[in-house]
Design goal:
Structural class: mainly beta
Strand content: 25-35%
Transmembrane segments: 601-630
Shape: elongated
Number of helices: 8
Main location: membrane
Membrane topology: Single-pass type I membrane protein
Protein name: Cadherin-10
GO molecular function, one term: beta-catenin binding
Low-confidence stretches: 1-52, 596-603, 640-649, 675-683, 691-704, 751-758, 782-787
Radius of gyration: 66 Å
Number of strands: 43
Length: 787
């Protein structure tokens, strides 16, 4: 009984898939249309339409050679007499799907892929071929593409990167992988994916339904193995036989935890350093090992003893313990320092070990080497005092230094002369006594800062320095003097006992109790004195008149000698002269006019007068400058040619290879113009002066004066240069523009030859010798050619 039912069901679905439902029988699609409202709802009535289909089914990935048959469209009004034509419109009409317009058979022209498009919506209608009128209105239907298992699962990543802590418990989540299948998940098992592990067991496992990877082995140690590669497979059809599958790789890294303590590779370390090592210098470095990485391998070093002499710090990158010196080493006091260094992790994980198990210790021995040290002064600085009147050679104090070496070498002392450029002090090299070598003056320099050096014969290159501050004590060796006042004025109508000036004094000395000055009139001026001095007992004194009335006509200036003495020991005094000038005053005592000298000093020019004088001076200067400029301009504008006959001066020779444009004394053009005048004082710069060979030069000069003929003059000059053994072989062109009176050659200038009307005979040039041969060939040849 089961077999027939299965056959009937198969036949039904096959017919549905083939689309053979016709409009003339079988299933009919019914529709509903509105006819009006009744009460709260709609009044509906059922109507029948001519189209009784609305969807077709088509399998994807058709592999046949013919077009794939979809179904058949048929209208109730088609009497199959060939008068009805079927028209197809919509998605893929005419390209993907075609219809036989006479029979209504529908075909697909190419393979379809559900993953590209799962359904197509089209419309069909029946048209009368004769009239073109629609027999049936367009009706819409759908062609659905049935899925087949033609896509394998694909993972979203390949590879996956994951990590998990080492020593994790079994079942710890690592990562979740995901695969997708492009097939239809609503139809069959084509898209149902199941996960399995192909590589990575027994360390990891995967959940078949979710793709979650978990740890499967306890106590996985990163220090044993850090990286794992796991291959996961995803298979569709729920993992059944014949399903498609895909794979991906999962790279899993074990993350480090602090499960390993730091350890010193050795138990004892030894470093050797010189005792001269400066504080802050590095003694040595320790390196403990830790199998962990990152922050779990960070270590901290600690010195358990000798905290005041050494310290240790951790170098961040290499995690090394750097031991540095904090105090000065002394070989004579201690030769070996023994340290106990501890190392421990900074970050601890209490899940695995206690804190005590994460510590390790090592012994460090620091051996101090002896070096030749310079002497050391017993005090960091010395202060000495000496009176400024101390004699040369007086000892003002002493310094002391000792050799810290065990041999206790002899120490020698010397002054750093860069701190005592004037050599005011000196020191005994053996006992360190400092004494004076030059006189002192407190007023010139009250403090001297010098530096004393100490050295031993074993460490002469190394010296210790100590500052010595010498204070020069004051002695009363300076007399007081007037303080910025040496002149006073008195009116002619002054009364007796009137104060005309208050004077004060200054002293370069600095006594311990302060200054105390005493003022008095000099004894020699006490007789018939016109003025007297009254001490005010406050280091000042008043100069007062002795009588009434003073006449400028009789005497205009009085000199009052004042004696000033200090109160120190020994007493120092000086006599200072106060100049008192007599002035005419009004009734109120206001000065109107003093003597001629005072009036002249007081007189002055007003501001307007000074400005006027300054303007006059400026105008005069401008006139002088303008006159000088006009004169210079006039000299520049003078013509170079004085007359038309002097046109030869305008001929400039540019092939002169002699001394250049600045060689103005190579020849004297004035001599050619007037052979009678020759200056013996001028010398050529390109030859040795005449003073070296006077005989040849003077003979030639004498002949030149007597001979006014230019031709003879030139010949003599040529002979002079040819016969002169001191003349250097300079290539110099000398131009001679003066022909002299009665010259046969007349003018050689080409500027005047242009104005010549007749032809000239240049044959005489050939008679002038080989030096004029080139010129004779040039002019003589032209004449012969013209003829």
């Amino acid at each position: 009984m089961r077999t027939p039912l299965l056959l009937l069901l198969w036949l039904y679905f096959w017919c549905e898939a083939r689309g053979t439902l016709r409009t003339t029988g079988g299933l009919r699609r019914t529709g509903w249309e509105h006819t009006g409202t009744a009460g709260d709802g709609l009044s509906l009535r059922r109507s029948k339409r001519g189209w009784m289909w609305n969807q077709f089914f088509l399998l994807e990935e058709y592999t046949g050679s013919d077009d794939q048959y979809v179904g058949k469209l048929h209208s109730d009004k088609d009497r199959e007499d060939g008068t009805v034509r079927y028209v197809l419109t919509g998605e893929g009409a005419g390209t993907i799907f075609v219809i036989d317009e006479n029979s209504g058979d529908l075909h697909a022209t190419r393979r379809l892929d559900r993953e590209e498009k799962a359904s197509y919506t089209l419309s069909a209608k029946a048209v009368d071929k004769l009239t073109g009128r629609d027999l049936e209105g367009p009706s819409q239907f759908t062609i659905k593409i049935h899925d087949i298992n033609d896509n394998e699962p694909k993972f979203t990543k390949d590879p996956y990167i994951a990590s998990v802590q080492e020593m994790a418990d079994v079942g710890t989540f690592v990562v979740q992988v995901t695969a997708t299948d492009a097939d239809d998940s609503t139809y069959g098992n084509s898209a149902k994916v199941v996960y399995s592990i192909l590589q990575g067991q027994p360390y990891f496992s995967v959940e078949p339904e979710t793709g979650i990877i978990r740890t499967a082995l306890p106590n996985m140690n990163r220090e044993v193995r850090e990286h794992y590669q796991v291959v996961i497979q995803a298979k569709d059809m729920a993992g059944q036989m014949g399903g498609l599958s895909g794979t991906t790789t999962v790279n899993i890294t074990l993350l480090d935890i602090n499960n390993n303590p730091p350890r010193f590779p050795q138990g004892v370390y030894q470093f050797t350093v010189p005792e001269s090592l400066e504080p802050g210098s590095t003694i040595g470095m320790l390196k403990a090992t830790d199998a962990d990485t990152g922050k779990n391998a960070e270590m901290e070093y600690t010195i358990m003893d000798d905290q005041d002499m050494f310290q240790i710090s951790t170098k961040g990158i290499t995690q090394e313990g750097v031991i540095t010196l904090t105090k000065t080493l002394d070989y004579e006091k201690r030769k070996i320092h023994t340290l106990r260094v501890q190392v421990e992790n900074v970050y601890l994980d209490p899940r695995f070990h206690s804190r005590e198990s994460f510590r390790d210790t090592a012994t460090v021995k620091v051996v101090v080497e002896d070096v030749d040290e310079p002497p050391v002064f017993k005090r960091p600085a010395y202060i000495m005092e000496v009176k400024e009147n101390a004699e040369i050679g007086t000892i003002i104090g002493s310094v002391s230094a000792v050799d810290p070496d065990a041999s206790r070498n002899i120490v020698k002392y010397l002054i750093d002369w860069r701190t005592d450029m004037d050599h005011v002090f000196n020191i005994h090299p053996n006992n360190g006594s400092v004494y004076i070598s030059r006189p002192l003056d407190r007023e010139e320099q009250a403090w001297h800062n010098i530096s004393v050096q100490a050295e031993s014969f074993r460490s002469k290159d190394e010296k210790d320095h100590v500052p010595v501050y010498v204070r020069v004590l004051d002695v009363n060796d300076n007399a007081p003097t007037f303080d910025n006042v040496d002149e006073a004025f008195v009116c002619e109508n002054a009364k007796a006992g009137q104060r005309i000036q208050t004077v004060s004094a200054s002293d370069a000395d600095q006594p311990a109790g302060g200054h105390r000055f005493f003022f008095s009139l000099a004894p020699e001026a006490s007789v018939n004195a016109n003025f007297t001095v009254r001490d005010n007992k406050d280091n000042t004194a008043s100069v007062v008149t002795v009588r009434s009335g003073y006449s400028r006509v009789q005497k205009s200036v009085y000199l009052v000698p004042v004696v000033i003495a200090d109160g120190d020991f020994p007493v120092q005094s000086s006599t200072n002269t106060l100049t008192v000038r007599v002035c005419s005053c009004d009734r109120d005592g206001n000065m109107k006019q003093c003597n001629s000298e005072a009036f002249t000093l007081a007189a002055g020019l007003s501001t307007g007068a000074l400005v006027a004088i300054l303007l006059c001076v400026i105008i005069l200067l401008m006139i002088v400058v303008l006159f000088t400029a006009l004169r210079s301009q006039r000299e520049k504008m003078e013509p170079l040619i004085i007359s038309k006959e002097d046109v030869r001066d305008n001929v400039v020779s540019y092939n002169d290879e002699g001394g250049g444009e600045e060689d103005t004394q190579a020849f004297d053009i004035g001599t050619l113009r007037n052979p009678e005048v020759i200056e013996d004082t001028k010398h050529r710069r390109d030859i040795i002066p005449d003073s070296l060979y006077p005989s040849t030069r003077r003979l030639a000069a004498t002949a030149a004066r007597d001979n006014t003929d230019v031709q003879d003059f030139i010949a003599q000059r040529l002979q002079e240069n040819d016969s002169d053994p001191a003349a250097p072989p300079y290539d110099s062109l000398a131009t001679y523009a003066y022909e002299g009176s009665g010259s046969v050659a007349e003018s050689l200038s080409s500027l005047e030859s242009v104005s010549s009307e007749g032809l000239q005979d240049y044959n005489y040039l050939s008679e002038w010798g080989p030096r004029f041969k080139k010129l004779a060939d040039m002019y003589g040849g032209e004449e012969s050619e013209d003829s």
